[in-house]
Amino acid sequence: MSTVRTWFITGASRGLGALWAEAVLAHGDRVVATARDASVFGPLAERYGSRVLPLDLDVTDRSAVDAAVEEAERKFGGIDILVNNAGHMLHGTVEEVGAEQARAQMDVNFFGALWTTRAVLPGMRERRSGRILQVSSIGGLVAYPALGIYQASKWALEAMSQSLAAEVEVYGIHVTLIEPIMFPTGLAEASPQSQPHPAYAHAREALFAGAAASRFTPGDPAATSAALLALADAPHPPLRVLFGTGGIDALRTEFAGRLAGLEEWDHISRLAQGSLDPTAK
């Protein structure tokens, strides 16, 4: 019989997080299900009993995060898999987005994941095992107009997680960035929007036109549960994995364009290099 694992899932009240919590419990594991209002987990707790620990949690509150992880560890003896899923998608151009909106975006999508990651690391290091699954986005690897602040939060998550993976591998801790492409989860509808400015109508049109012209086909949110469980069972999980199809082609185009641009302007790079050799001609 396989070992029962303990999962800590943020943002488990809706969307992919809710589907994943249900799937993990149906699989026989335990779940610490967190949301701003844990009362929504009542039906889940009725079905799965003591294998569910519902917790109120605002991931932007670092002390609350630490307390939640401590409570989870007291109840279940340790956290085997952290899923940093809590987040929202702020829509707006860089100039349109308000200062508080921008800070809130980073607080939830980046700092929230950072605080929960830091909170579980001591226990995982002590046990010399653990999995940290960071829910990023295809927007963590590319950037589109009118989504710059949202995607900045995901780029920050990507960089932090890649560094973290190299830091904790020696302790048997695996870090994986999950990059969903397009799933109808209601994320956009439930997320804050900036006040549109007519000067940037072209940017919003470019975003929608790009989405319409993309090769991304909306995926089935329920199907991601099987992918998540397969990822958790993989003995050597990847640093990054796309959830959904069409992303590889988009990334080939993106990265080829980056390299081409850098090569085109390599003469400026060489100019900036200069020479520390006083005898160089």
From TrEMBL:
Coiled coil: none annotated. It holds the Pfam family adh_short. The keyword Endoplasmic reticulum does not apply. Signal peptide: none annotated. Keywords: Oxidoreductase. CDD domains: 17beta-HSD-like_SDR_c (cd05374). The keyword Aminoacyl-tRNA synthetase does not apply. NCBIfam families: PRK08263.1. Belongs to the short-chain dehydrogenases/reductases (SDR) family. This is SDR family NAD(P)-dependent oxidoreductase.
